[in-house]
């Protein structure tokens, strides 16, 4: 039977703030220090906003595929999944790399305001919800600046997203990597159910979603698996777009550099016929794809 609780790596912590303190360079971060000082001096009002810190993998200032319009895309490091086709294997595992405050991220984002005014900011990864407090703080600040926000997630850690946090998210890009639990686990290394639970919760909240499904010949292309994703998506009420993406090998060289095994070296990208057949299955379930 499919296990319903996410199986997490040992560094899981319920609070992004305390969790980050374990990994900050000097054992403390601005977020923690501000919180501590606010608690120590009860005579002072707590600061209006508390800047949080997060581990950033990379930044793309003019992204065009991760949400509507031109977007500032913040890729965070850290991911509990091990997708066979991941093109950022260096982002997997514990969050690591450059530490940025949410304050500094937004200061940078607003410099691009003219370019992204029909777009916004997207936080991707890795799995952004490994750093949920940081994501929330960046999005809260972005909304205060009138900037559109998009969360790009596998949904595996969706239970970490509070309703309050989701209020600061305009759009969720949700990857549903398979519908068959065994195939999902083979593809990602983790269980499927948390992603389905998160999708239903987003639907119940009326939160806008773009669903993404990656077609990998020999891995995710079984008709029953594809049809299962299509049927599931057809039952959601707030899906604005469904994207069927062809598997590609852009990240393969990184595996070699990292000394990791790339399991899909012998897998070819899907042919136009295979893509068309996959889209046809979605269509038969009443789901239009792009
Ligand atoms: S969820 Fe994304 S970052 Fe994580 S392993 Fe899968 S493809 Fe890579």
How many DSSP helices?
10
CATH topology: TIM Barrel
Count of strand segments: 8
Ligands (ions, cofactors included): iron/sulfur cluster
Beta-strand content bin = 15-25%
Quaternary structure annotation: single chain
- Order of neighbouring strands in the sheet with most strands: 3-1-2-4-5-6-7-8
Number of domains: 1
Family: Belongs to the organic radical-activating enzymes family.
Cofactor: [4Fe-4S] cluster
Catalytic activity: glycyl-[formate C-acetyltransferase] + reduced [flavodoxin] + S-adenosyl-L-methionine = glycin-2-yl radical-[formate C-acetyltransferase] + semiquinone [flavodoxin] + 5'-deoxyadenosine + L-methionine + H(+)
Keywords: 4Fe-4S, Cytoplasm, Iron, Iron-sulfur, Metal-binding, Oxidoreductase, Pyruvate, S-adenosyl-L-methionine
Keywords for this structure?
globular; alpha/beta; binds iron/sulfur cluster; TIM Barrel; 8 strands; eight-stranded mixed β-sheet; disordered N terminus; 34% helix
